[in-house]
Amino acid sequence: MKPSIAQKRIEGVLAPVITPFRKDYSPDPDRFVRHCQWLMRSGCAGLAVFGTNSEANSMSVEEKLELLDALATGGVAAGALMPGTGHCALSDSVKMTREAVRMGCGGVLMLPPFYYKGVSDEGLFRNFSEVIERVGDERLRLYLYHIPPVSNVPIPLELIERLLERYPGTVAGVKDSSGDWSNTKAMLDRFKDRSFDIFAGSEVFLLDNMRSGGRGCITATGNVNPAAIDHVYRNWRGPEADRLQAGITATRKIVQKQPMISALKAITAHFGNDPQWKTVRPPLVELTSEQERQLISDLQGAGFSMPGLRG
Amino acid sequence: MKPSIAQKRIEGVLAPVITPFRKDYSPDPDRFVRHCQWLMRSGCAGLAVFGTNSEANSMSVEEKLELLDALATGGVAAGALMPGTGHCALSDSVKMTREAVRMGCGGVLMLPPFYYKGVSDEGLFRNFSEVIERVGDERLRLYLYHIPPVSNVPIPLELIERLLERYPGTVAGVKDSSGDWSNTKAMLDRFKDRSFDIFAGSEVFLLDNMRSGGRGCITATGNVNPAAIDHVYRNWRGPEADRLQAGITATRKIVQKQPMISALKAITAHFGNDPQWKTVRPPLVELTSEQERQLISDLQGAGFSMPGLRG
Q1: What is chain B's Cα-based Rg?
Q2: Which of A15, A287, B93, B118 is most buried (most C-beta within 10 Å)?
Q3: Is B188 strand, coil or helix?
Q4: Is the pLDDT of residue B150 over 50?
């Protein structure tokens, strides 16, 4: 084990950063770094690169490591990064996690292995445990990624309890993308005073999460609306909190009327005047022109903007 | 495009070969080659290495390529191989498929990208199409892998139709692991006389599949019961076919009372007198000793054996 470095944990609003692809579907490091820099300037406390909204699982480990390198070269602070490093293959998870820790990333956000369904808690425990033991570095801050609507493999509270018991300090928190507030609340109640940081998986639950002891949110729409979401985070104790929350919830509802990832890319393409952003890797597809027109029109009608996005 | 080499297509019984791991979970090429050789001696017409029962998605691309190399070095005929090459990441699928074709594999068995759920036929078409175009080799024989109970991403008949229309000769068939005979029958009816080879995903449907124009089966229990299953395949037109089918179905039912992959490994460990075979990678877990005792006892009671397995 390398010596622990007491680093302040990431709190606030994180974006699961969308990944720009060129026409040939290759990842575009320059656009990626620029978008990350804009997010950090615009209210994000951290960047959950390689999340679901990043099309992370549509990329190879090598492609993701190249993008991480580009961020380092591009001067994005590693301490603000919480890359997704969980794969179906234990060997891939170890490789990505080790590299993230070596770079000094503030944390890693880890999916369970998601090919086999109905697996046991024991099997999932062994997966996370093997990654932690093999990386063998006290700097590792592991955030569990609970997203059963997509992964189809949940991370039950009993499993979290067991991991937290065995690896306190290393198992640092969770992103709850179940979409089920009662599950987030159950985590908040059960793991309070355990140094276990709970992030809502959508800004719709940001205020509720903060009021119940959570640490922020890691949210798709953080890619396009970071300033307003951060404003709720910074003012959650204030008299305007409910009104501010209603505003970001309204924007979220507009965006999620369309397929989320393609919508985020269409918004970034439109407000950044950069159409290449629209490209998604198979098996995803871009919005139709009608979906795109509706989305942009709805957002403009609500006074939405992305200040400072155009170069 | 390299010139097409008229190679006889694989027909008959294929095993999705279980992958041996050492105590530290590293793949064991020597045990793997020995098991593949035993399967080819014992009735298998081909080897669907890197299938669901191979824990393929629990391994990195590099680990799988090393095992493929070991098969080539070990003298297993490449023409009999149908490796699984479908991944969530397009780049991984292209890399594995290209390597399989370069080695002269008889085919590849391709999962759809399985992280995102509810994706469109257009998105799945683009995925398979990109792989075919990028590999760009007329020797490619692509078998689609339909296994919605695990992948949670089905391959609908309309998508097969479109792929077959665009890539005749390359899109060569399907493994139907839906467990739903009516789906297999619908494929058989719709794609007859189209050079589209349909393999049942379980030997339970072998006789039905052969009688309806199918080409064999790719089945988990092919790992442990290849001779008897091959015997049904070779005698499907004969007067004893129904009785023979009942025999292999009975064996299957015994095995699938336990979690399949761990059961196959426990059987191989027991009848090959090689306990290291029991190791599975997380998130899977080995059978409990009680499950194992029950399984072996049931099989012995039914007169099951694995002739020639012990070195």
Answers
A1: 18
A2: A15
A3: helix
A4: yes
Q: Do B58 and A88 touch (CB under 8 A)?
A: yes
Alpha-carbon separation of residue B34 from B19, B24, B38, B269, B311 (angstroms): 11, 20, 6, 13, 9
Eight-state DSSP code of residue A53:
G
The count of other CB atoms within 10 Å of the CB of residue A288 is 11
C-alpha–C-alpha distance, residues A77 and A104, integer Å: 9
CA end-to-end distance (rounded Å), chain B: 43
**Best of A63, A85, A87, A90 to disrupt the B interface by mutation (most B CBs within 10 Å)?**
A90
Question: What single letter denotes the amino acid at residue A155?
Answer: I
pLDDT at position A6 is: 55
Two tokens, residue B104: 């002269």
Q: Who's near A209: CB < 8 A, 6+ residues apart?
A: A184, A188, A198, A199, A200, A215, A216, A217
Which residues are CB-contacts of B194 (< 8 A; sequence separation ≥ 6)?
A: B164, B168
Query: Which are the contacts of B80, defined by CB distance < 8 A and separation ≥ 6?
Result: B10, B40, B44, B45, B46, B47, B106
B126 in contact with chain A, both atoms CB, cutoff 8 A: yes
Other beta carbons within 10 angstroms of residue A212's beta carbon come to: 17
| B169, two tokens | 């000769």
**Residue A235 φ then ψ, to 5°:** -120, 25
Tell whether ipTM is more than 0.90.
yes
Instruction: Name the pTM for this structure.
Output: 0.96
Residues 82..101 of A with a Cβ closer than 8 Å to B: which?
88-92, 95
In this complex, how many residue pairs, one in chain A and one in chain B, have their CB atoms less than 8 Å apart?
Answer: 113
Write out the two tokens for B282: 């997380």
Which of A287, A277, A294, A305 shows the shortest CA–CA distance to A30?
A277
Select from A62, A89, A151 the Cβ nearest to the Cβ of B57. Answer: A89
Cα–Cα distance between A275 and A91 in angstroms, integer?
A: 36
Return d(Cα B240, Cα B235) in angstroms, integer: 7
Q: Which residues pair with A163 in a beta bridge?
A: none
What SS3 state is found at A7? coil
Residues A63 and A56 sit within 8 Å (Cβ to Cβ)? no
Token pair 């302040």 in the structure block, residue: A8
pLDDT of residue A1: 41
Ramachandran angles phi, psi of A217, nearest 5° = -150, 155
